[in-house]
Automatic annotation (TrEMBL):
InterPro entries, A to Z: Dup_hybrid_motif (IPR011055), PTS_EIIA_1_perm (IPR001127), PTS_EIIA_component (IPR050890)
Location of the PTS EIIA type-1 domain: 34-137
Molecular function GO labels: kinase activity
Main location: cytoplasm
BP terms from Gene Ontology: phosphoenolpyruvate-dependent sugar phosphotransferase system
Keywords for this protein: Kinase, Phosphotransferase system, Sugar transport, Transferase, Transport
Protein name per Swiss-Prot or TrEMBL: PTS system, glucose subfamily, IIA component
Domain of life: Bacteria
Length: 161
């Protein structure tokens, strides 16, 4: 196997190992109310209507952005960069309902808790918990089972093209 073929093979394997970062109903990105996400202006992705406590790292990688409010985390690995945005307009809560468990520059492993969420507090404030996961490096996403309830760290929820 050539070095180039070997790199491509590793990239394909790693891309398939994207786990659900949270528990909830699986959605297409265009089902999110915020046009920045639904129109794919930041990139393609998917969403989960969050119904859990923890948000976990779906892959190994490096935290390249961690909003102090805890509502959004950017992660980069060898193959891609992606953003996990918890809820809609949750930046307005100024961190209330979120416990950020990582910092920019941290190396994380798949399954590490990156944010703890008090969903009741967020819902009390009238915010939606529909949470987009957006791929910032040009990947195209196919959601495998729209409307299905997924568990945190479940695999085979999306196909990355």
């Amino acid at each position: 196997m050539t070095a180039q073929t070997n790199r491509m093979f590793k990239k394909i394997l790693k891309r398939k190992d994207f786990f659900s970062p949270m528990e909830g109903e699986l959605m297409r990105i265009d089902q999110v109310e915020d046009e920045v996400f639904s129109t794919r202006s930041m990139g393609d992705g998917f969403a989960i209507d969050f119904n859990g406590v923890d948000v976990k790292a779906p892959t190994d990688g490096e935290v390249i952005m961690a909003f102090p409010t805890g509502h959004a985390i950017g992660i980069k690995n060898d193959n891609m960069e992606y953003l996990i945005h918890i809820g809609m307009d949750t930046v307005e809560l100024e961190g209330e309902g979120f416990e950020l468990c990582v910092a920019q520059g941290d190396r994380i492993k798949q399954g590490d808790v990156i944010v703890k969420v008090d969903k009741e507090k967020i819902l009390e404030k009238g915010k939606s918990l529909k949470s987009p996961i957006v791929f910032l490096t040009g990947e195209k996403i196919e959601v495998l089972s729209v409307g299905r309830y997924v568990k945190c760290m479940e695999k085979n929820i999306i196909k990355i093209k």
